[in-house]
Fold:
Amino acid sequence: MLEIRFHGRGGQGTVVATILLAKAFFDAGYSVQSFPVFGVERRGAPVEAYLRIASKEIRVRANVYTPDHVVVLDQTLLQGIDVTLGLKPQGWILLNAPGSPPRRERFSGYRLAFVDAARIALKHQLGTRTHPIVNTAIMGALARVLGMPPMDAIAVAIEDEIAVRREENIQAAQEAYEQVQIVGLIQTLAEYAC
Structure:
């Protein structure tokens, strides 16, 4: 079983991303669970959502405490939240960031990937300049990092579940899939002394 924790802010589509990914994985033949955890329900407030994926029936009905991977939809959350809490060694951290984040030593022992999902969302007119909706771009980037689900399953989930700007959302997912930067395992800070 694969467990993924998503960190985002209200209004970015964090919960919708996990629901759409669950649908895409289900269509690709997996068993899935998707559920959010809310604190204050308002735009900009931190949000967590979870996704479980397995090749057989999932019987676990508990929160995710030790995720295999973490997805961060807003890099400003790194300032106040330990996104690596409980993350299994060598798990992926996928960041919405325009470049490799500063202070990479905090990600030592994990694999890192990043994509400028905000820029991609704005290019496809998803959200506003101050509040880009990055969820579908993050979905495409995650599909590339994990090697699943197939992009056609993501496109079908978007087509079936998103009522507006479907084509733009599909294009954003595809573009992020192509542009995600995969750094890999971070062992020491010296790796970045280039």
